[in-house]
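Hypothesis: this fold can be encoded by more than one sequence.
Test: take the structure tokens below, design a sequence, compare later.
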């Protein structure tokens, strides 16, 4: 897990420390301290100068341009190669230049980086700017989709084994991100994520799969409020599969992310979900 809070700003030193990197000038950071994560930084003066820039999209995803300051972008570039494989959790930060008052107060021009959340790299394309310093260059543009730890609601009361078996069959027909990162379409990604979350909620049948308790409240549709948690992310050799997700109450969800015993808690939750999956009828 990471220590960053959504919307909060951090100096570059904290980003480098988290991943264990010495890449002081790079826009993509990785290291031995957090082998399952890569940090990407967006914005700053460089993007404005070259005539293209990363951008957020209305659905919460981002276009993020690859690395390489001159000529065409190459997939052989270590940063681009990591993004193209799609097997790391991407921590996205936007860059902010310091104000004059901040420079006077701190005595330096160090940038600040605002955390925008966790993403998965879901494919890439090649684009060529029509103007600016990179006009005509073939640049890689990666699609970053937000990691799905969101609440899923309005699930009907149909948790029988036949329904779960039917949904498993549906999942088998939709490719996984871990297996097809450079070819998976956005539609496939969203379809699979939605199916997996729905499956976990149906399997839970109104009980937290971690503590066994009932949801603490109901939503506007009258459904018990549970959140779908990825036990192991792609970065931890997990995937978007039924045995890797759990429907949990908000308290257990926070415990899975922030408690001192989160690793042991995660292992117990994984074992509990796998036991339930093994006990389900296959037909």
């Amino acid at each position: 897990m990471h220590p960053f809070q959504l919307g909060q700003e951090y100096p570059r030193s904290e980003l480098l420390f988290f991943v264990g990197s010495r890449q002081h000038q790079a826009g993509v950071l990785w290291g031995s301290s957090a082998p399952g994560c890569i940090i990407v930084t967006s914005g700053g003066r460089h993007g404005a100068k070259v005539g293209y820039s990363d951008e957020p999209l209305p659905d919460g995803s981002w276009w993020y341009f690859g690395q390489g300051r001159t000529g065409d972008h190459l997939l052989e570039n270590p940063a681009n190669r990591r993004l193209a494989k799609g097997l790391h959790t991407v921590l996205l930060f936007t860059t902010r230049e310091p104000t004059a008052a901040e420079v006077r107060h701190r005595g330096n021009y160090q940038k600040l980086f605002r955390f925008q959340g966790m993403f998965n790299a879901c494919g890439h394309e090649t684009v060529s700017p029509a103007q600016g310093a990179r006009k005509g260059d073939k640049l890689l543009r990666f699609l970053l989709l937000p990691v799905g730890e969101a609440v899923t609601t309005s699930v009907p009361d149909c948790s029988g084994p036949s329904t779960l078996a039917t949904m498993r069959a549906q999942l088998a027909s939709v490719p996984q991100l871990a297996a097809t990162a450079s070819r998976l379409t956005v539609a496939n990604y969203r379809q699979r994520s939605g199916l997996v979350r729905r499956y976990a909620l149906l399997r839970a049948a109104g009980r937290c799969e971690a503590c066994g308790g009932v949801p603490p409240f109901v939503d506007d549709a009258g459904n018990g409020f549970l959140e779908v948690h990825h036990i192991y992310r792609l970065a931890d050799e997990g995937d978007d599969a039924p045995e890797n997700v759990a429907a949990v109450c908000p308290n257990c969800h926070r415990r899975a992310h922030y408690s001192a015993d989160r690793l042991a808690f995660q292992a117990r939750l994984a074992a509990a979900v796998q036991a339930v999956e093994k006990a389900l009828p296959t037909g």
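The beta strands are 9-11, 28-29, 37-43, 55-56, 62-65, 89-96, 112-127, 139-146, 227-230, 245-248. The chain has two domains: 9-146, 161-279.
Hypothesis status: open.
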